Fold this protein.
Amino acid sequence: MAEDFYDIPGDVLKEAEDAASFKLNVPESVRADKHGNRYWFEAGTIKSAQRSRAKDVPVTIFSMQININAEGSGKNINKPLSNYMRINYPAVTEKKEGGQLTMSRMSIHKLNTLFRSLGLEGDRDDGGYSKSMLSEYFPLDTDFNKEVSPLVNRVVYFEVKQPPDGETDKNGRPLSAEITKFVPEIG
């Protein structure tokens, strides 16, 4: 009978630790801001897209997993990159100034750049996105839901922001690379 688990050597632990930081390889020609964040463009294939709800606040989370391909910088081929867009609908409709409204507006902007980059237009009369359209492109993430988003296997182009090495969030967790916006193509 085959053994179902094995030793884990130290070099494998080091590789896993390095991979867990989710740092991308920074190309030579990048734009940097005064805070040390670095920006460049990548391309990738969407591997999953779904939505979920935050546990304690009225926030809908639209998430995607993207595998970076060679059409971008060429430095991060096959690396995964997660993208999260968090929208607090009450904060948006009531225009409650503060972190939740800012987060929601930035997420709505990113969602809008995603759809525009893929040539998708809003289905509402005012140009916005209906609940049914958002549900189609970001099916609910549950154990029982087997819907696949029409975004899966689509190639997207996007700007990456990578914080300076060693920078952490307010809880002490290392900051990772994030997508700032989607674009129709790189160039």
Summary: Residues 29-182 form one domain.
